[in-house]
Amino acid sequence: MEQSDTPIGAAYDYSPPADTASVKSTKKRGSAARVSRVIKKKGELLTEPEKKANHIASEQKRRMNIRVGYDQLIQIVPTLTPSQRSEALILQKTVEYIKYLIMEREILEGQMKEANR
């Protein structure tokens, strides 16, 4: 392989992201904060409105978890910015970055093997 003067990954910033575990979505949509799950004692059946409330709360929690995941990807992938909210773009750039990291790893492993000879 030829070596170039440009460092591997010059287009990427490898500084670790801020604490990704603390990423939280600050957006609130609709009545997400007001809906809570209904919990009854064992053996008691839920009424239809209670089932609906549980379903709505579960769906809102699922959506929030997805948003948090996308926010974490935005922080981790160097070519993404917080203003880029397209899920398709976030996934595309994430795949590109992962492929880049795999390629870089293979290059570094090859360099290590050559150095150990």
Describe this protein's structure.
The protein is mainly alpha-helical and 117 residues long. It contains two helices and no strands. The protein has helices spanning 48-76, 87-115. The longest helix has 29 residues, at 48-76. It is elongated. The model is unreliable at 1-10 and 14-32 (pLDDT under 50).
Compact summary:
With 117 residues, this protein is mainly alpha-helical. It has two helices and no strands. The chain has helices at residues 48-76, 87-115.
Cα-atom radius of gyration:
22 Å
Helix content: 40-55%
Give me the count of strands: 0
Main beta-sheet annotation: none
Descriptive labels:
single chain; 117 residues
Write the layout of secondary structure elements.
Elements: H1 48-76, H2 87-115
